[in-house]
Amino acid sequence: MVDNTDDESGPRRLTYLVYVPSEKRPMAVVGLASQPVVLTHVEKTRFDQLQRTTKQNTSKTHEGDCYQSLGCWKDNLTDRAIPTLEGTDPRLGDSYGARSNPVEKCYQVAHSRGLTVFAVQDGGQCFGSANGHNTFFKYGRSSACGVDGEGGTSTNEVYLIGVNVALGKPAFQTSHFRPPGGAASRAVDGNTDPAYHHGSCTHTSNPGETNPSWWVDLGQSYVIDRVLIFNRQDLCPERINPFNIHIGDSYHISTNPRCGGDHYINLNQPSISVSCQGMKGRYVGVRLPGPYRILTLCEVQVFLGRCAPKILDNSAPNLYKISSELVCRMGDGASYRGTVSKTETGKTCQRWDSQTPHGHEYTTAKYPSSGLEENYCRRTSDWTEVWCFTTDPMASARWEFCDVPVCVVGHKRHGCKGGYIRLGRHCIRLVPIPKSFVDAQLACKADGATLAMPKTKELDLALRRLVKTSGGNYDHWIGMTEDGDVDWTWVDRTRLGHYRGWHPSEPRDSRWDSLCVHYWSSGHTIDPMWDDTKCSEKKWYICQSRPHI
């Protein structure tokens, strides 16, 4: 079916041609940031916003964040939103009212059956089904759940199983719908709204192409548990069938192993969960086999459903977990014990027990609680970020920060609103709409945010990396101006501190123009850096807000 009605409002985007040697031809690759989405019916958007307003589990049985709350939802005793699991497993054979660790035990049963969500009600009653992620919201939200995470009378505390490692990662696709059509990054923006015209679905070229593909770069290899795909529902939902999922370490996604064969989604359902247990890879892709195909994805979520037991339930001796601290870092990364061993520029880390090529004093004896193992990135007590020494003998490359993803699961106070991603303690959104500095600041303010203020080296490097990987080759306003005294001031009226990220030839001094600061993407060969220019120029911009409280 050819949809000639597809059109979007928004900024102009460009498709970049990347020469792929094995293909012997240029390949169109798109990976730009998505636009904000205004949602009026939360119940109809399933997981969008929910994952950004999560509650960390309060489990005393396991360590690690293997499930996260999707909030409190109404139920109906005569027509359950999610069927009960009570009495279907020995772990749920007792009276739920007297059950110890009811949330954890419900999770264990749901996880052992490969479910995506589970729910706890009335102090411990357990619910779950293979289709629960499509039905839990059918009666709307509730505020009647208890603070213990065990639901309430006829109200479910609903939990999502696993850690979605695709959220906010760089995404690409083989072609692009006419400007400014569905950017690849829309499938990893955390918004599962199934309506393309709401601005959160991808779209390849129309008319179709042969074997259109979309893929996400997770940054490192993971053992994948399942892939959850949200299909378009406002028009042409049948386009996606059949589809293939490829997982592996090759950027050429079609050369990676397939997860199963041809998959088909039920067109009456918004999503499909595909089990890929045991497959490992850095790249996860969706490919439509055959000619004249159009690929539209409203969200792709990649879950590591395994997490690490501190204490195992005796009734589930085979249950095992991997703490989220092995795949992402919480807060400043002090507790990170993962295996990332590359810096943010791709350099290999030097072993901590080696003095070659760089001599140092970072030993396990001096820093016994920092986990200085192998050549893994770590945050030592005297640093504020995860880092390592490099194997590059150049003195200028002695050490670098590491690109370890920030865990986005956690207490609901730590969530970001729709369209924003989490960078440390900040919520960030790249906005691909050219505006003057003043108009950009007003637009951020209208969204409850401000222009980004990279006051620290850590945030500045994170924003540079984000602009470089997801912002195309465009300049982006940040929230700094000249205050009239040839000094620089952030938009919150604080003066520029000791840290400065200027391009070597900046800033300039102008007595005639009001100057504002932006990330200059084309002015530096490695990363965008600060540059001052006329405030009247129109550029893309970066909004920054605080996590939800």
Automatic annotation (TrEMBL):
Residues 423-544 form the C-type lectin domain. The gene is LOC118403261. The lineage of its organism: Eukaryota, Metazoa, Chordata, Cephalochordata, Leptocardii. Gene3D superfamilies: Galactose-binding domain-like, Mannose-Binding Protein A, subunit A, Plasminogen Kringle 4. Homotrimer. One of its GO terms (molecular function) is metal ion binding. PROSITE patterns: C_TYPE_LECTIN_1, C_TYPE_LECTIN_2, KRINGLE_2. This is Uncharacterized protein LOC118403261. Disulfide bonds join C349-C388. Belongs to the fucolectin family. CDD domains: CLECT, KR. Acts as a defensive agent. Recognizes blood group fucosylated oligosaccharides including A, B, H and Lewis B-type antigens. Does not recognize Lewis A antigen and has low affinity for monovalent haptens. One of its GO terms (biological process) is regulation of complement activation, lectin pathway. It comes from Branchiostoma floridae (Florida lancelet). Keywords: Calcium, Disulfide bond, Kringle, Lectin, Metal-binding.
